[in-house]
Amino acid sequence: MRTKPQSTHYFLQGGGEMGALMRHTDWIKTGLGEPEEWPQSLQTAVSMMLENKVGMYIAWGQDFIQLYNDAYRPILGSTKHPQALGISSRETFIEIWHIIGPMFEDVMKGKAVGFPDFMLPLNREGFVEKCYFDFSYSPLRKEDGEVGGVLVTVIETTQRRKTEDELKKSEERFRTMADNIPNLAWMADSEGWIFWYNKKWYEYTGTTPQQMEGWGWQSVHDPAALPFVMERWKASLQTGNPFEMVFPMKGADGKFRQFLTRVLPVKDAEGNIYQWFGTNTDISLQNETEALLKESEEKIRSIVQSAPFPIGVYKGEDLIIELANPSIIETWGKGNDVIGRSYKEILPELDNQEIFKQLSDVIKTGIAFHAKNRRVDLVVNNKLQSYYFNYSFTPLFDASGKVYGVINTGADVTDLNLAKIKLEEAQDKAQLAIDSAQLGVYEIIYATDEMFTDRRFKEIWGVGPTVKRHEYAAVIHPDDLPVRRKAHDDSLKTGNLYYQARVIWKDHSVHWVRVTGKISYNDNKQPEKLLGVIQDVTSYVLAQKQAEESERNLRQTILQAPVAMCILRGPDHVVELANDRMYELWGKPAAELSNKPIFVGLPEAKDQGFEKLLHDVYTTAVPFFANEVPINLPRAGEIKQIYINFLYEPYHETDGTVSGVIAVAVDVTEQTNATKKIEQMVAERTSQLATANQKLQKSNEELAQFAYIASHDLQEPLRKISTFTQMLENSIGDKIDEHTKNYVHKIITASNRMNTLIRDVLTYSQLVKENELFEPVNLNTVIESIITDYDLLIEQKKATIEFNGLPVIEAVPMQMAQLFGNLVGNALKFTRADVNPLIRITAEKVSEEEIKSLGLAAGLDYYGIKVSDNGIGFKPEHAEQIFNIFQRLHRKSEFEGTGIGLAMCKKIALNHKGNINANGSSANGAVFTVFLPLKQ
């Protein structure tokens, strides 16, 4: 029995799976014979084929015996491989031999053939399927030049062809849907050549397909914006990035409207761009609404920021401060960092003054609260002070009528310069979020009444993932059901559906939707299905309502403001609206002024300069503000001069033009007169202070002269006494008795003590100098240096000094060494005879409450550095006394010293905006706490 050989011929080496199969094939049974007998051309072709990564196939001889490589094997499928190896092509490809057989015969005659994307109905998986190939058939010649077989190179394109077919079908469906969306839509090839527009495009532009072909779309663009559009569009064509831009487009009526244009690339299975799809969404309504809201909001905000009286806006039950103008921040006296914090947190002192309850009632009931001449106690500059205010808490309503916050306006009637008053901000910022390209798609089958929707449709409609058609209708607002019903009835006549309605979500919130669609018909012209889209237009509807509400709030604010306010309309400044306080200020009833030019109804105010001020604000749109301006107005039947603070603010229309002036005024006559009296008193007091300052300067000069005498004139004779006493002692030597020697020793000791006292007094006096430079000082380094200075005494007394974590502060380095050197020196001096000294130095940040209680400088961060010991301590009643200069608690015979050290410590601490205190007892030792700021 003959076994299957394993060939070792060079041309059968490698080749992966097919190489292995060829080496194990018994070629004697195939008709080709032993491989070593194959023609040289066949051997070469086989070797090349096995190593090639492209699908290759050889049909050799008149029987077309088959050989192929790994890349070709998938083409044969599971029913033809591996049986095809070594047998005739006629047997393997019997189902298509009538197609490829004649091609093989032509190749055997020396004629090469090839086709791209060629379809062959192959049975390779047990069934016949349409397969597509790019292939070529080339003749393989023997050594004598005759054709010995066929060389096939092939790439299967079946999947690509199927993908392209699916894309064509998808494109057809897509075009149908795009024809029914409310946007303008179009498609372009990969080079930007537009070959299709939807119906909405032609309806809006009034153009024809012939006019719009290719780059014809440029004719409906604004010439001024077209270069920028072209630049962005060409950039997208080059990079493949999506295009998004807002620019004007001309309609059939010749008018330009703003459109949001988005263009996305469409790619094939290999990721190559072969088309672009674009939409143009009309956002003119959105822009107009946003402009209206922005203008209204800016108008109110401008008035608020310019008004001279306090105003703030607090949101929610927690009263979070959303807006606070400079006037109210100054009134509170808590600094500028208030936005975003709670009103209750900023002003805790109001807790027992009924104000928090007033605010809570306004939020709960929606009813405004007004107070006049009401006392309010405020903590200003760390001191509780009493003020009197006229103030109002007015509720703010959202579009649904729910109270969402409070606007606080007020007038400080305590200050001599009456607070500059501010206008209420009418509404919170309008939030407009419109995504015009996010559309929900739906389809209705009339025969079955089935409805199919995408995910975005369900999100807009506010329903779950599986909903039937009648359930969609169930969430429509009852009042809008007739609108929907009529729209559907009309669509059966016109073929087009359009309506706008409200839908109610499960959380009971109401949303506005715009529905459009188009009906397709069967061959009998009966409605078959409806394809349409929906758009969430809630923001558009609410924005319009908010704009109207904002204007109403502005007028309501003027009427309810606690200061005089009015609107003067037109170049003649006609009184269109004024509150009661303004009529009181004018001194005339509303009947004499309403709807009349101000200087006609109030001729007493003419020729005092106000005509020009109003004219300038009206014509230039630049606000004008002034304080304590005199004006003659009627009062009780006669003309009197009063003083006012006033603001003229331009009143803008929606198109930006100025149509009038808003006036705000406060009568400050009493305060102005009082101010003049106080200015006179201040002048007198200033003169007195100047005289006192001269005396103080003279005293300082005398103190400086004393310091010079102490440093020079007193020390010089003292040095001579000490020197001559030592010379006398050395001269006498042992010639005197003990009694005389004791006298000499007392003289030397007294001289040394006097010298020490003079040096300490001089050092103490020099601590008042202001020319010392502050710099960063590491207190850990200071203590280490002090320990080094006292190392011998520490060793003698077996003392332990513990310290760590001391801060780095801004200070005078030498004074810090003196301060802590004195404290450590005292702890080493005043020790117990039978106890080893233990000195601890620690630091802790000082709280704001403790800073206030100690009377330290506000606004600085302080550290308390404690120096404690286990020495003899002192009595509590001496805690303040020990810081007095020359103060001693012990006899000189017990402990040395001048009594200046702790006074010097006190002076140094005060020089650094700090302080020092002491606690002690005879049983537990002494504790000194130095309070020093982190920065000067």
Give a verbal description of the structure:
- The chain has 936 residues and is an alpha+beta fold.
- The protein has a five-stranded antiparallel beta sheet, with helices on both faces. Strands 7-6-10-9-8 form a five-stranded antiparallel beta sheet. The chain has a five-stranded antiparallel beta sheet with strand order 12-11-15-14-13, covered by helices on one side.
Terminal-residue CA separation: 110 Å
Unreliable runs, pLDDT <50, ≥5 residues?
416-437
- Strand sequence of the main sheet, in spatial order? 2-1-5-4-3
The fraction of residues assigned to DSSP E strands is: 25-35%
The count of strands amounts to 32
Over all CA atoms, what is the radius of gyration?
50 Å
Please state the average pLDDT score.
83
- Largest sheet geometry: 5 strands, antiparallel
Number of helices: 28
Task: Give the structure's gist in a few sentences.
By secondary structure, the chain is an alpha+beta fold.
What is the topological layout?
Blueprint: H1 16-23, H2 40-51, E1 55-60, E2 65-68, H3 73-80, H4 89-92, H5 97-108, E3 113-123, E4 128-141, E5 147-156, H6 158-178, E6 184-189, E7 194-197, H7 199-205, H8 209-212, H9 226-239, E8 243-250, E9 256-267, E10 273-282, H10 284-306, E11 311-315, E12 320-324, H11 326-332, H12 343-346, H13 355-365, E13 369-380, E14 383-397, E15 403-412, E16 440-445, E17 450-453, H14 455-461, H15 469-474, H16 481-494, E18 496-504, E19 510-521, E20 527-536, H17 538-560, E21 564-569, E22 574-578, H18 580-586, H19 598-601, H20 610-620, E23 624-635, E24 638-652, E25 658-667, H21 669-713, H22 715-732, H23 738-766, E26 775-778, H24 779-789, H25 791-797, E27 800-803, E28 808-811, H26 813-829, E29 838-845, H27 848-854, E30 862-869, H28 901-911, E31 915-921, E32 925-933
